[in-house]
Design brief:
single chain; alpha/beta; Aconitase, domain 4; seven-stranded mixed beta sheet
């Protein structure tokens, strides 16, 4: 897993609350075991990203001009609710998102983000609304998310701190998932195995 320290990216707005994991990646696409290849199916539930004929729906939020190449998704509260499928962060990452900012997240989705190298940032609802409004009115709007400094900012003077779990923060800063954490103890594990 790649370390995450800070990034500046284009903000894409999904101004919807209670977006669940089936809306993020419909169950019909969960037939793969690889972590890649899911981005093409992101938000492909009927009536979302695509029209019935398979073309992109120009009225869907993420298909709007100015969100191309977006790496920071800003969404409504309770993002990632529903089932515990890890495919949801896989699809978001494969599409290009590295950070999701929302007023709240479902717990399992929140943890799955960290486990897959994605940063979920919880900010107050009024601050999330401020970022959304700016991104909607300024095509290509960018913010910087700094995990080291625990801060979201932009070049126009916007600056807000955020909090996160310190253990998860350190793991992400070092690029460590559960396997990486275990491998840090490889020497002790080998020594134990040799003494069995």
């Amino acid at each position: 897993m790649e370390p995450f320290i800070r990034m500046t990216g284009v903000v894409a707005v999904l101004d919807r609350e209670n977006v669940d994991t089936d809306q993020i990646i419909p169950a019909v696409y969960l037939k793969r075991i690889e972590r890649t290849g899911f981005g093409q199916f992101l938000f492909s539930q009927p009536g979302w990203r695509f029209l019935p004929d398979g073309r992109l729906d120009p009225d869907f939020e993420l298909n709007k001009p100015g969100y191309e190449g977006g790496t920071i998704l800003v969404a409504g509260k309770n993002f990632g609710s529903g089932s515990s499928r890890e495919h949801a962060p896989w699809a978001l990452l494969d599409y290009g998102f590295k950070v999701i900012i929302a007023p709240s997240f479902a717990d399992i989705f929140h943890n799955n983000c960290f486990q897959n190298g994605m940063l979920p940032v919880v900010l107050p609802e009024d601050v999330v609304r401020e970022i959304m409004d700016k991104a909607v009115t300024q095509a290509g709007c960018q913010v910087t998310v700094d995990l080291e400094a625990l801060e979201v900012s932009d070049s126009q003077g916007f600056r807000v701190p955020f909090k996160t779990n310190e253990f998860r923060r350190n793991c992400l800063l070092k690029g460590l998932d559960d396997i990486g954490l275990t491998l840090q103890l490889e020497g002790k594990i080998k020594a134990f195995e040799e003494n069995i």
